Structure to design on (462 residues):
């Protein structure tokens, strides 16, 4: 879906928005427009919005959407802007609709193990609120301290605990959504089970604000384990660490967290935190078990990895827990050079060893460097290719070629172009590589049915 083609009178848009809402909710200051014009993703065609609107409730969202239909501007719903795929980049004739002030936790139903929240609630704030009830909200992207639940829903975000507890879609029971025609609908239910009608809730999760704007969510909570055991295992190389992941699976143990870091990522941790990880190995697994079987699972994992030749931390080693928290709170931005390109592809776990070997072959062939951090428990890799900035645009062409080849290789291995970051603007060039024409056509038709004018987040996702 493309942005509306007609030019829109920016002054008229601002006047009508200010008339429909409170004046302090509408901003047209240049510095604000620039700040809200993009997320952390690559910007190929920089644009600034006509205005930024700060919604306070669902009615505000409806007012903006109705004006969009009348005046012809598009609406880009935005949370904290922490995405990395260009999912909230401004497009021509657009208004950015910020949901960050809709940040109320409306209900915590401890006995039902559910919570109802507005989209602007910060992920970690929800976890702090439900922890007193012995509960947690399982999806925990690395941006959990700054990203919003609405943004997590938009991209079907994942995180460290995904392999055991699932991604965002697995924790969303119901949604309140404003459609492109201004209607407010409720989809889903309060129960964990329910098959009445099509699963529209799952359709909206991961749709990147292209089908409707989420204004409230009913979320499933999980038990917060009192016993958590953390393990660090250091291997000579990344292939050995990947083999360790498969060995844990063959032992029929399901850790809550299994993160894999290569030597380049370990060097970054060393430089930031003063650790000496690279002196002890070329790759690392960070593992956490939880629940009443945490100690038993820990012992099985330590035995399996030791037999593979890994240097495994002692039980109760505080460093292991500290390293997991370092990884949990690192979005990876600090390890990215100016001239770099990275992605969040996923492959079947059985393909991890071969795919990681392929990544290094690709890097060698294109004369670029590569480092890899991986949610190894579910095969979601974040490879980053980079070059010396002094190479300039000539090096960037090799970089992009390496990235394209790595995506092709992931698909050849039975994987996907994005595990948790979304398609946004940046990954649309690969979408036809993964989805067959008939499937793409069906998805275009679904989007056209819900948003026939193409007003909601044009140029993103499908």
């Amino acid at each position: 879906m493309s942005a509306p083609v007609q030019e829109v009178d920016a002054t008229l848009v601002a006047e009508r928005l200010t008339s429909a809402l409170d004046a302090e909710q509408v901003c047209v200051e240049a510095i604000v427009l620039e700040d809200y014009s993009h997320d952390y993703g690559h910007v190929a065609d920089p644009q600034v919005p006509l205005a930024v609107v700060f919604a306070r409730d669902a009615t505000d969202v409806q007012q903006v959407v109705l004006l969009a239909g009348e005046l012809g501007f598009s609406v880009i719903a935005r949370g904290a802007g922490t995405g990395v795929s260009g999912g909230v980049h401004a497009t021509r004739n657009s208004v950015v609709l910020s949901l960050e002030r809709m940040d109320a936790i409306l209900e915590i139903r401890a006995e039902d193990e559910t919570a109802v929240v507005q989209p602007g609630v910060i992920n970690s704030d929800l976890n702090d609120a439900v922890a007193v009830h012995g509960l947690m909200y399982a999806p925990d992207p690395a941006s959990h301290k700054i990203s919003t639940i609405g943004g997590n829903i938009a991209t079907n975000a994942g995180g460290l605990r995904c392999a055991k507890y699932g991604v965002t879609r697995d924790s969303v029971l119901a949604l309140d959504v404003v459609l492109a025609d201004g209607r407010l609908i409720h989809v889903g239910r309060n129960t964990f089970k329910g098959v009445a009608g099509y699963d529209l809730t799952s359709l909206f999760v991961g749709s990147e604000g292209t089908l409707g704007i989420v204004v409230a969510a009913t979320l499933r909570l999980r038990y917060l384990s009192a016993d958590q055991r953390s393990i660090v295992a250091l291997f000579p190389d990344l292939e050995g660490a990947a083999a360790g992941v498969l060995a844990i699976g063959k032992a029929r143990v399901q850790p809550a967290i299994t993160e894999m870091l290569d030597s380049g990522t370990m060097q970054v941790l060393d430089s930031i935190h003063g650790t000496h990880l690279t002196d002890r190995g070329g790759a690392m697994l960070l593992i956490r078990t939880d629940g009443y079987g945490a100690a038993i699972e820990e012992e099985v994992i330590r035995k399996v990895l030791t037999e593979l030749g890994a240097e495994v931390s002692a039980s109760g080693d505080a460093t292991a827990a500290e390293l997991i928290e370092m990884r949990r709170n690192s979005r990876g931005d600090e390890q990215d050079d100016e001239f770099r390109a990275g992605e969040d592809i996923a492959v079947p776990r059985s393909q991890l060893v071969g795919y990681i070997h392929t990544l290094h072959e690709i890097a060698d062939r294109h004369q670029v460097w590569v480092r890899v951090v991986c949610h190894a428990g579910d095969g979601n890799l974040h490879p980053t290719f980079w070059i010396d900035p002094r190479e300039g645009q000539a090096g960037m062409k090799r970089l992009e070629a390496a990235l394209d080849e790595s995506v092709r290789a992931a698909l050849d291995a039975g994987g996907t172009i994005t595990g948790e970051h979304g398609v946004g603007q940046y990954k649309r060039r690969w979408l036809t590589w993964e989805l067959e024409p008939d499937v793409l056509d069906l998805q275009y038709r679904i989007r056209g049915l819900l948003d026939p004018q193409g007003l909601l987040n044009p140029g993103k996702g499908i």
Summary: Residues 105-223 form a domain with the Uridine Diphospho-n-acetylenolpyruvylglucosamine Reductase; domain 3 fold (CATH 3.30.465.10).
